[in-house]
Amino acid sequence: MTQVATAQPEETVRRDPAKIFPVSWDQFHRDSRALAWRLSGAGPFEAIVCITRGGLVPAAIVARELGIKLIETVCVSSYTGTSQGELSVLKTVAQSIIARGGGEGVRVLLVDDLVDTGKTATVVRQIVPRAHLATVYAKPMGRPLVDTFVTEVSQDTWIYFPWDTGLAFQPPINEAGL
């Protein structure tokens, strides 16, 4: 059985509700395809490991675009609502994937929707240290751990992903409408 690393909670980043970045399904699909385009020259990749749950959708898009058929998951829990808590690996990567590249995950592509503080990326990199980590969005604290990403957002910005939202009125940034 594989040992599973856990990280203790670290300082929580204050979320300013005025700094939100809502992402539509169309935008997320475009951004995920842009990620695949950037990755097309970084391979070849033999397998994708998507970091669940956020990595499931971009991994499916990247797998389609790059023609990768071997897809695995690593299941990591770190958020309760909008607060990052204790991180735990609920399911690790299959030995057959880890074994690639001499047991370090060479030619394996890790995909997630976002790197925030880098805690999840750090734990997953312990499992497959030489895998290529790609995320659609990156925040400054986690950015050094990512090999490829599409868009950087500030650390205090909260991203609303399309699977987390419904259609609703959005008030203007300036309440007076100016």
Number of helices: 5
Strand element count? 8
> What is the annotated CATH architecture of the domain at 41-155?
3-Layer(aba) Sandwich
CATH fold title of the domain at 41-155 = Rossmann fold
Strand arrangement in the largest pleated sheet = 4-3-2-5-6-7
Unreliable residue runs: 1-13
Secondary-structure class: alpha/beta
Summed over residues and divided by their number, the pLDDT gives a mean of 87
What is the CATH level 1 assignment of the domain at 41-155? Alpha Beta
What share of the residues lie within helices?
Answer: 10-25%
Give the CA-CA distance, first to last residue. 60 Å
Beta-strand residue fraction: 25-35%
What is the H/E order?
EHEHEEHHEHEEE
| Biggest pleated-sheet summary | 6 strands, mixed
Q: Describe the global form.
A: globular
Based on CA atoms alone, the radius of gyration comes out at: 17 Å
Description:
This protein has five helices and eight strands; from the N terminus they run βαβαββααβαβββ. The chain has 178 residues and is an alpha/beta fold. It has a domain of 115 residues: Rossmann fold. It is globular, with a radius of gyration of 17 Å. The chain starts with 19 loop residues before the first strand and ends in an 18-residue tail after the last strand. The N terminus is likely disordered.
